[in-house]
Amino acid sequence: MTLTARTDDPPILVVPTESTDSPRVVRRRRLGLWLAVAWLGVVAAAALLADFLPIADPTANVAVGHSAPFTSWPEVLGTDRLGRSVTARLAHGAQISLIVGVLATVFGMVVGVAAGMFAAIWKPVDFFVGALLDSLLAVPGVVLLLALAATMGAGVPQLVLGLALYALPTFARLARGTARVVRHQPYVDAARMIGTRPLRLLTRELLPAVMRPVVAYAVVVLASLMVAEAAVSYLGLGVPPPTPTWGGMISDGQSSLSSAPYLVLVPAMVLFGTVLSIGVIGRWWQSKEATA
Amino acid sequence: MSNSNLAPLLVVDDLTTEFISGGNALPAVRNASFSVDRGRTLGVVGESGSGKSVLIRSIMRLLRASDVRHRGRIVLDGEDLLTMSGPRLRATWGSCMAMVFQDPMTTLHPNHRIGFQVSEALRQHFKISRNEADTRTLELLRSVGIPEPTRRMRQYPYELSGGMRQRVVIAIAIACDPELLLADEPTTALDVTVQAQVLGLLKTHQSQRGMAMILVSHDLAVVSSRTDDLMVMYSGQIVEYGKTATVLNQPLMPYTAALLRSTPSIDKPVKSDLFTIPGEPLPTERFQTGCRFASRCQFASEICISDQPGLTERPDGRRYRCHLPLGSVESSEALKVNLARGKTAAGLPVSEYSVAKGA
């Protein structure tokens, strides 16, 4: 009787998939992805096993003065100005880099998503959170970290807190925006109509939908926070010496840049490779998310 | 809770729903009054924009308080829904009244399994263990005719067809044995072949569980065979109300008659023109001195332009909103006058041809 006969296909947006790329591009992209995963695996393993690997103590002087990579055994990557093992310092530095990066991202994500979602639901919270985020955004990241280091001293907890605060506003905005769209979805109304309590609506109905873009974005944030961590260590506001960090190593090597450029180059390459790998994985995830 | 089982389950008394937009109040439903008895099915028909969905959503209290203003009373089982507190309303949703939405593609959460979504409804209202909830979910899915319910429980909505999804939505709606089920065009988004199955399913559960049901549709065929009473809405108003069979066989309001004539019939010759109602429906928010249908009505006479007709009730319970109800002497007189002058009092051209064919 009715004239509107529709198909059973869900009325989703038609998003062009990767099919527009040639097979060669797709193959190359896949190779890049695997290289990224492999490199991250090496870094993560080095960080996890740093204390158990047969490498030198990162703070002990195993040689006199610096030496270039591939010139001595067992210090394949050479030694720094004080004759400390670069291999050992990179491995232990990976611990700090990953711990700080991951913790700051997770804290920023959890607090940011919670704030953003409450802001999306309740007007008074929206005003309060909005004002707070705007004032956070008004403070440049470096200044924020400087202020934290000046008032609370330098250390891993301060670093995590500072970087989390730095990442928080973007997470909050992303979560707020997504939640505001999703809360008008019919399935949220449908859930209300079976008597679902507001908090449960938030966690069961909105959260799963909000987390999809947020998690994809978090990977990109992780990469940028690791760079930020290195930058802060470079400025001497990070974890105090002699604890090895990648940023600290770059900063250290700077003084002998002309005589021993590899002291800057090696940790910088490691940092670059790690951030690039995380970025590649993050992009892949986001594109997968966009077509899903 | 209930005063008496003889009292109507739902009483809507002089309900006006207005949308608040930039300081203006735009009415979408105007002064609606009706009631639904326990175990009965009320059909609501009308064209797009007549206020059917807003009416249903008002009863369900689904519209956000920041967007709308309700006036009047909506009494379910002796309690006014419009003055109900949030927690009380949440207890009512699901267990006392439930809703089946139009589009099953978007009413199920894409990230949760079917089983979870059905048992969620149960666990909101009953203190039962996960296992008990799962057992009842299985029974529910089986009762709405879902094959292999054990397997379906572990599936996600995208793995199910539209018809299957609407069955799941129905299972969720009836999970807590509501006394009133509101179905807002439950089959509009479905394939024609599936429509009959889903409607039959709704009807079966409605009579088995003794639920009252309000079935909204713009499809007369859908309501004609599956409802006890029928309510016709036009431009935000109830224009006709009565037993489904009598309303369809003997409409009193010209709009109902025109709506019936606009339905394609399988008995007519294949190439015959479809009757259409001239003009466009009056937007619900627009103010009108006389009858809201007057500008499109072939019977319109002077009184229809000057005076707004009230909802007249006949002794047999039939209600209509018309100065010149069909079948009355006044009605045929008015048509004669309009034919003689070639147009209605509202200026709509009428001729023998247009009376026979529509515009």
Characterize the structure shown:
- The complex is a heterodimer of chains A (292) and B (359).
- Chain A has nine helices and no strands.
- Chain A is globular.
- In chain A, helix 1 packs across helix 9 and helix 4 packs across helix 5.
- By secondary structure, chain A is mainly alpha-helical.
- Chain B is of the alpha/beta class.
- Chain B is built from 14 helices and twelve strands.
- In chain B, strands 6-7-8-3-9-10-12-11 form an eight-stranded mixed β-sheet. In chain B, strands 2-1-4-5 form a four-stranded antiparallel β-sheet.
- In chain B, helix 4 packs across helix 5, helix 4 packs parallel to helix 7 and helix 5 packs across helix 7.
- The radius of gyration of chain B is 22 Å and the shape is globular.
- The chains are: A mainly alpha (292), B alpha/beta (359).
- At the A-B interface, helix 6 and helix 7 of A face helix 2, helix 3, helix 4, helix 7 and helix 9 of B.
Structural class of chain A: mainly alpha
Structural class of chain B: alpha/beta
CA-based shape of chain A: globular
Largest interface: A-B, 25 and 46 residues
Integer-rounded radius of gyration of chain A: 24 Å
Number of strands of chain B: 12
Low-confidence stretches of chain B: none
> Percent helix among the residues of chain B?
25-40%
Radius of gyration of chain B: 22 Å
Largest sheet of chain B: 8 strands, mixed
* Overall geometric form of chain B: globular
Provide the succession of SSEs of chain B.
EEEHEEHEHHHHHEHEHEEHHHEEHH
Strand content of chain B: 15-25%
What is the tally of beta strands of chain A?
Answer: 0
Order of helices and strands of chain A: HHHHHHHHH
Per DSSP, the total helix count of chain A is 9
* CA(first)-CA(last) distance of chain B: 53 Å
